[in-house]
Amino acid sequence: MIRTLFIICSFLCIQQEEPVISWNESYKLSWNDFKGPPNKNTSAVAVTASGITFGFSIREEDNRVVSFTSQVHTHFYPEKSWYKKEQADAHVLAHEQLHFNITELYTRKFRQRIGQIKVSNNVKRQLKNLHNTINKELSQTQNKYDSETNYSRNVEAQTAWETYIANELKKLSKYKSVD
What we know:
With about 180 residues, the protein is of the alpha+beta class. Helix content is about 40%, strand content about 20%.
């Protein structure tokens, strides 16, 4: 018996109903992409909502997994991203763009690690665990970026992070998003 099982992360299904911008190396965010209402109760000047969407399918024969495929995408969510017009500038926008680029970096790492998974009956669990691990790593890196740059205020650290992320993206260029 041949059976194909489709599993798509529930986040992916929800996100398809709201507008998204897929990461593309030739597209740079503009303030027009930030459509959410600004949070007046925070000192933050801007917030970038970005994330990794993930889905996979598994093909089974005689209750044995024989193959799997996956889809991994980097998205920016305009309706959940915002900025305070009176305080925003090009420097802050570059900081927000780098948040989106960091998400793309972890999408590439995710694709690379998926490519290392061997087909087995445990593949579903492995993919879910890997997804959780990547999201934790992404969150830690985003927080570290904000902390070390003092939310873009430390210009020297901001420049260092821009160089670091650009180099890391280059190293994993064969896994880049092409949406």
